[in-house]
Design brief:
Blueprint lengths: L6 H10 L5 H8 L3 H15 L4 E2 L5 E2 L1 H27 L3 E7 L1 H18 L3 E7 L13 E6 L6 E15 L1 H7 L5 H4 L4 E4 L8 H7 L11 E3 L2 H9 L4 E5 L4 H5 L4 E2 L6 E11 L6 H15 L3
Parallel strand pairs: 3-4, 3-5, 7-8, 7-9
Antiparallel strand pairs: 1-2, 5-11, 6-9, 6-10, 6-11
Length: 297
């Protein structure tokens, strides 16, 4: 750090690298040409390096060209960070953890509404399907899918969901629309594999009195969003939770098959460590979540 010059000297260097003369650099800095020349000679003496080749026009030496982007990046980063800090002044940061599919399909589209209603909240959104223990810097609050059993945590029910099959109009044009669940057994079924909380075809078929045996052409996916995307592409029929496909059904990209009520045994809950739920910024977030949840009941 012994070779670190004053900020004004670094700024003179950064500005001079973008101009053909010291005079032009001085005009941007609102100082005299001699002041810029003096600062740069001081910098060259401090670093023991020639930074400019002086003539009718300034030209960076190899050393100057190497240092120029580093110094420019320093000022850009400093300006951006100061801008962020000024923007955050008076705002409260809230770290929210949610599962990836819930964040993408339900929470993310609604965040602009939160910003309008509560501009004081600066939400930092993190996605994970892991169990949350609120240890370290994991999160302040979380939204989880489960049965509401979260010992030691403040827990609030948000909403439940229906589970049903969906298919793309293209697939239905190609294979026809199944008239009853039994005909669905002849369709390629997209199976969400490896997730305990994912809707299960065997459970849904059992609820309508049928046995399920996967066909050879059935496809298995390790991600809910990938399963929905495969259904959108017409690769097969997906078994989904209602909140994951609200937009796709409303705009006609997916079609719900059969009006068979099948409530998911799981629901979404707001959870946080006991004692912090009464903090004003968390109260505001909880109330906003509850109001949004009521809109989709």
């Amino acid at each position: 750090m012994r070779d670190l010059p004053p900020t004004a000297t670094l700024r003179a260097f950064e500005v001079a690298t973008r101009h053909p003369t010291f005079t032009a650099a001085a005009q941007e800095l609102h100082v005299t040409q001699s002041a810029v020349s003096h600062q740069l000679r001081h910098l060259e003496a401090l670093w023991g390096l020639q930074l400019f080749e002086r003539g009718k026009a300034l030209r960076l030496t190899a050393a100057g060209a190497t240092l120029a982007p580093i110094v420019r990046e320093f000022f850009m980063s400093l300006e951006a960070t100061l801008g962020d800090l000024r923007e955050q002044k008076g705002r409260v940061r809230l770290s929210v953890s949610a599962t990836y599919s819930f964040a993408l399909k339900w929470l993310l589209p609604r965040l602009p509404n939160l910003a309008r209603q509560h501009p004081e909240l600066l939400v930092s959104l993190h996605t994970t399907d892991d169990i949350i223990h609120f240890s370290g810097n994991q999160a302040d609050v979380a939204i989880r899918l489960g049965k509401g059993n979260y010992p030691g945590l403040h827990t609030e029910f948000l909403f439940g969901e229906q589970v049903f099959p969906v298919a793309s109009p293209e697939l239905l044009r190609r294979m026809g629309t199944p008239r009853d669940p039994e005909e669905l057994l002849q369709f390629p079924l997209l199976i969400r594999d490896g997730a305990e909380l994912a809707p299960k075809w065997e459970v849904w078929f059992d609820s309508v009195g049928l046995a399920f045996s996967p066909l050879k052409e059935s496809v298995r996916f390790g991600d809910t969003n990938m399963t929905v995307e495969a259904a959108l592409l017409g690769h097969g029929v997906a078994l989904v939770r209602s909140r994951h496909v609200e937009n796709e059904i409303s705009d006609g990209r997916l079609v719900r098959l059969f009006d068979v009520p099948f409530p998911s045994p799981l629901a979404y809950y707001f959870v946080c460590p006991k004692g912090i739920e009464a903090q004003p910024h968390i109260v505001n977030f909880r109330r906003w979540l509850s109001s949004e949840a009521l809109k989709v009941q």
